[in-house]
Amino acid sequence: MSETPQKRLYIKTYGCQMNVYDSERMTDVLRPLGYGVVDDPEGADLVVLNTCHIREKATEKVYSELGLIKQMKDRKAQTGGKMTIAVAGCVAQAEGQEIMNRQRAVDLVVGPQAYHQLPELIARAHRASGERLAADFAADEKFDALPAERHVTGVTAFLTVQEGCDKFCTFCVVPYTRGGEWSRPVNDIVEEAKRLAGAGVREVTLLGQNVNAYDGDGSTLAKLVRQLAKIDGLDRIRYTTSHPRDMGEDLIEAHGELPQLMPYLHLPVQAGSDKILKAMNRDHTAESYVRLIERIRAARPDIAMSGDFIVGFPGERDGDFEKTLELVREVGFASAFSFKYSRRPGTPASAMPGQVDEAVKAERLDRLNQLLDDQQRAFNASQVGKTLPVLFEKAGRHPGQIVGRSPYLQAVHVSGGEHLIGTIVPVRIESAAKMSLAGVLANEPVLETA
Hints:
This protein has 13 helices and 20 strands. It has helices at residues 17-30, 56-78, 90-102, 118-127, 139-145, 174-177, 186-198, 221-228, 249-257, 274-279, 286-299, 318-331, 358-381; strands spanning 7-13, 35-37, 46-51, 84-89, 108-110, 133-134, 156-160, 162-163, 182-183, 203-207, 236-240, 264-266, 304-311, 335-340, 387-395, 401-405, 411-415, 423-432, 436-441, 448-449. Strand 13, helix 12 (318-331) and strand 14 form a beta-alpha-beta unit.
């Protein structure tokens, strides 16, 4: 008796790390239905676009991609085959019915809190009857319905601990597409982390729209991290993305006390002008942000800071932008993400007066990026001559090369055998580029082997 051919699943992920996690969990949900992941949408039985709604261009890319996928669907239909197209994620949440109206090849739309319903939605789509749009906000139901086991490959993994946002920054769509803040129970997270460690994962990155607002079971992120640090085999812990107003003293203390908590912190500031920060509804000032960084560095002097910046927010004048540059110079960032302000329909900022000309935005972004790039290069150059513990993750692009991550999240390239993948090894850094380091294995024993 021959086996039933495996159904082919193609998932394209846009945007943040939480979407990466969600895509992984979608594959877990669909695996019992016989779906196996493929790298090419051509000929796939199910195509899922897991979307991001943060910027307008990202949304338009989804519609462009749908046009290409429709052509593939039509070609498959000509040979008697069937392709199901699903749009998931934040664009699905925000524009569900519009997606189905604008691109009729889409069979189903599922929001980020409802992808556990994919098997049922697919069955309905195949029957050509019933609801094909799911956009619930019940995050607890989603996690309760997900399979306990995760199919993981590699030595690092994302782990969602918190979803949604109550901050309502005036430029952001997340509260409208992910719902309010909700935290998973502590025991559920700990058990998932134990299973990941048992599968060979050495490093987890805890995810949340405001991850340091975590309050599952009345806990805090710091308390959760301390529990995770006790898990055998789980040697590195990171978290993203944080909000300055939720950076509690206990979390700052944890950075100074837990070796498992990596000395790298992504803490978005967005702007250096208090006027702009108030218009953004950020609930912090430039001064309070700088003082917060000082307290964090007092607890962990070697910590590397990363941030987010938006230029050209409505009402931003030259003087406001100069204050952003001043803040960057004062703090010093090891890495950063910077963007031109993009109007998102339905957000308060989209209707604000003083919208900034695109050419002005571009010029400011260029100036900011030059400063941030200089700081990133300087930070990387400061690692030359040091010996850093590197967790090796995969083979490199060149023969005999392996690639890992430093504690500061830099890619590190060395010559070495693939038997070192999954181990944490001291590496002497010999050269630095903007995005990576290169070094040699130090004449020291391997720290640990999985």
